[in-house]
Each structure stands twice: as C-alpha cells, then as structure tokens.
Amino acid sequence: METISFAGDELAPELIPSEELADCAATALEEDGARILSYGTGAGYTPLRELLAERFGVHPYRVFLTNGWLQGFGLLAQHRARAQNVVAEYPTYDRALQLLFRAGANVIYLDIHDDGPALDLLAVNLRTSQRPALLYTIPTFQNPTGQSLSAEQRARLYYLAQRAGVLTVEDDTYGLLRVEGDPLPTLFELSGQASVYSTSFSYTIAPGLRVGVFVLPEELAGELAARANSIYITPALLSQATVFEFLRRGSFDSNLEHLTSELLIRRDAMLGALERHVAGGEWTRPEGGIFVTLRLPPGTDTKAIVERAEGVSALAGADYGGRPNALRLNFAAHAPDEIEQGIERLGRALETVFDP
Q1: What is the value of pTM for the model shown?
Q2: Does domain 4-14+253-351 fall into CATH 3.90.1150.10?
Q3: Gap between the Cα atoms of 23 and 33, Å rounded
C-alpha cells in the first residue's frame, strides 16, 4: 500500500508548470546566458529585482533575493537576532524557529488561539521585557495553523511593534494562495513600507526554483547583501532569471488563477472527507494556503496515531509545537481522490483510539 502523506509542505507535481518553466529557462539562457552563468551581486538577479520593485513600489536596492526563503531569514536572524529578544508566534514555522535558536535568540512567544493572537499579553511583554530586535509573524494562512489575522488584529499588532520600536518581519509565503474571501492588507502596507516583507515563489510557481524575496529597509538591504556576498558570493541566478521570464511574459497571474482554483477543489475535498470519515474532531476552514488543522478530543495523542496509522501520514502537533491533540494536514500535495482515500485511512486509525 502506497502511503498518502499529508505531512509535508509540497505542492502536487501536476500543480507545477514544469513545461513552461523549462521554456522560460531556455529563453533566459538564450537572452542573458553570459550574465546568468557567471557571478552576480549578492542581492540577486538585477532584472528580477527591478521588476519586483515596480510591483512593490520601492527602489530595486531594497529587494533582496535568496536561495529560498529560509536562507534569507537565516541571514536576517544571524544579523539582527543574535543573542537578542525576538517575538514569534506559537506555534509557528518550525524551521524559522530553529534558525532563531541557532542565532542564540531569546524567543518571546505570541500565543495563537482559535480567535487569534494573544495581543494583550504581547503588549505586557513588550512593556516589561528588553526591547526585541525582531517580531516574526505569518499573518496570512499561517504555517502550521492555516489561520489568518483579521484586519483589526494586523493593525494592532503593527501598532504594538511600532510603539516598542521593534522591526516587524512579515512572512507572506502563502498570502497569494487565497481561494475565497477578500484580501487583507499586509503589514508591509500598514507600515507604509517601513517593515520587512518576505515571500517565496515556492508555492506560487515551484518550490524547486528556490527563490526567496525580501523587501527591506534601505540600511538593512545593503547590510544583508554584503553578508550574502561574503558567504556565497551570489545566489543561483538561473532560477531567478527563470522566474523573471515567467513574470515578464505574463504567466504568473494566469498560473496563480489556475493554482488557486485547484487548491479550492482540494481544500473542499479534504473538508468533505473529514466530514465523512472523522468523528469526534473539529477542523479549520482556511480561506487559502495549503493547511487544515484537525483537532481531536483533549488527551488524544496524535503522534501515537500517526505512528500506527496504515497507509497515511500527517504532522502531529507535538512535532510542530502545536497542541498534542492536533494534526496538520496539507491538502495541496494530492489529487481529490487521493485526499479521500487518505482521510478515510486516517479515520480508521482514529477509530482504534477512541469511541466517537
């Protein structure tokens, strides 16, 4: 029996425009191969930086491109968070948290509840603690919970950070993957472009391209570009040039429209399968992103369930810093029929643990 995995962060292969990306790469090499295959600036491929600067309404100098989002965040953590206080959501993206710990940061947690973040407690912590160097947040379709901050929560979060003099780092990796509802303002927009905005093309084009995007305050942009240049000289320019060509020929918006329509089908397939096959639990209904959180009765050890489930896997709360009775389920990695099979198998595993 082949295992159906809901545990990872990936997109299903059929959601990746591989043929057009191959053509984009060929075009990029034909038109700019000498530059792409040589060393470049540590800040990334200049034509892509200029194109993204137009979209964000900033000077290209502020756009910093990296070999995947994590590399950029790692550079930022080492540069600004070393042995400093840092505010981060709990739970949050586990690899980002690992990079903060590796930098020696002291993490002040902003607890995420069903109704949003504990902002009153954060206000107290900001008044009583040494000023944090960073506030790291995923306000839209958060990993791992799939939740989003409301417009009011975003405004208050940025206000608290601004009043305390804390640099806000917004991770908007999943923000464009909206399948229903109205878009919400980014913290970058609320700040008047004064905060750090970051995203990735991993979910809007292809994860294997490894292209992370950071829009930084000018001083920080120069510092991180110099640090990148001293460590790895230049990022992989072929991937960035491929993304540039994909955007330049107008393929990004049509691909995003196709992608979000497919994600809506798969999200609804997972929600429907949970309704049919999982009794005694409750789950989120995200308006976008790629994750649904399944919560089982208090005291349920989801890690043990995952270990003995046959033919299906998921990420247990204990493995990402969430509630022990929670499971994170990725609905973007499989077709609807596979989602149905996987949730049915998960439901059978749950039946062996508790009597609904």
Answers
A1: 0.95
A2: yes
A3: 14
